[in-house]
Fold this sequence. Notes:
This protein has helices at about 5-25, 25-35, 100-115, 120-135, and strands spanning about 40-45, 45-65, 65-70, 75-80, 85-90, 95-100, 140, 145-150, 160, 165-170, 175-180, 195-200, 205-210, 220-230, 240-255, 260-265, 270-275, 280-290, 295-300, 310, 325. The chain is α+β, with helices and mostly antiparallel strands. The strands form four sheets. Strands 2-11-14-13-12-15 form a six-stranded antiparallel β-barrel. A four-stranded antiparallel β-sheet has the order 3-10-8-5, with no helix packed on it.
Amino acid sequence: MTFRARLSTLLLAAILASGCGGSATDPKKEQSSAPGPATPVRVAPVEKATLAEIVSAPGKITAMSQEKVRAPFAGTLVEFTVTDGDRVRRGQIVGSVVARDSEAALAGAREMEREAKSDAERRDAARAVELARRNLVRAPLAVASDGIVVSHAASAGDRVSEDEEILSIAETKSLVVLADVPQAQLPKIRAGEAVQIEIPGRPPAGGRVHGILAESGPSDLTAPVRIDLDAAPGMAVGLFATARITVAERRDVPSVPDAAVVRDDVTGASRVAVAGADGKAHWIAVTPGIAQNGRTEIAAPPLDPAIRVIVSGQAGLPEGTPVAPSR
C-alpha cells in the first residue's frame, strides 16, 4: 500500500473513532443530570377562621364591699348558726344577742328560785322567773345582703359589747377578680373586653374588664386589672383563678396550621412552603397575625384557599425541590 493510501486509511479511522466517541453516553453524567426522587411532605389547605388574641393572667377572687354584722347592744351571743365560707341570703337570721340587763334579771330570778324554802317563796320566785323570761330582750342578727361569710369575731356564748363586730360578709354582687396582667400587655387592655374566668374544679365563668386599678411603675412586672363577674355561682373569696382576656378578634381570616409557619430566629422573618401545581416546593414570605387553637392568621400576602401549605417535611427543603404531598 502506498504512503498516500495508508494516510487516507488512518484519517478515516480517526474520524470514525472521533464520531463514535462523541456520540457515546457517559453513564455518570447521565446519572447526575437525572432529577432526584420527590421528597414526601404533608400538606394542609388554607382555611378561613375566626381567631382571637387572648391575654392570660393569674388572679384571685376578692370582694370590693363587705357587710359587718354588729351587736345591737351589750349582751350575750346566745346562738350563732354560720361559719366561715358559708353562703347567706338577704334577711337570713344567723344568730341572736340577749341584752345584758335582761339577762341579769333572769339570772337573778332563777337564783331566787333555787334559794326559795317555803311554798310562798317558791311561788314568788316562779312568777319572777316567768316575768323575767317575758321581758327578756333578745335581738336577732339578720344579714342585709346575699354574700359569703368571710370571718367571725365571736361564737355562741360569748359576751359582746354594743356595736362590736360579730360577722364579716363579702357581698356576692361585689365579687370581682383581680388579675395580675404583665406590664407589656397592659396597652391592649380596655374596659368592657370579654373575659373567661377559669377556676380549677369549677365550670368557667364569664366577666368583663372593669379597668386597670393602678398603673405599673418601671420596676413593676404586672399591674392589677379588675374584672367584674357576669354571675358568681360557686365563687368564694380567696379562690385563685386564671383570667383569659379577649383583646382582639379577627373573623373569617385566612389561616394555616401553626406547623406551616417557619420563623427565622435571627431575622424574625416568617415564611411558609407550599406544594405548587408543578410538583415542587416554593417558599413564600408571610406576615403572621393572631395565633389561636393551633392555627395562625396570615395577614399578608393574600393566600388563595386552593393553596396547599406544607406542614411537615419542609425543614431544610430548598426552593424548587420536587415534593410528593400527602394529607
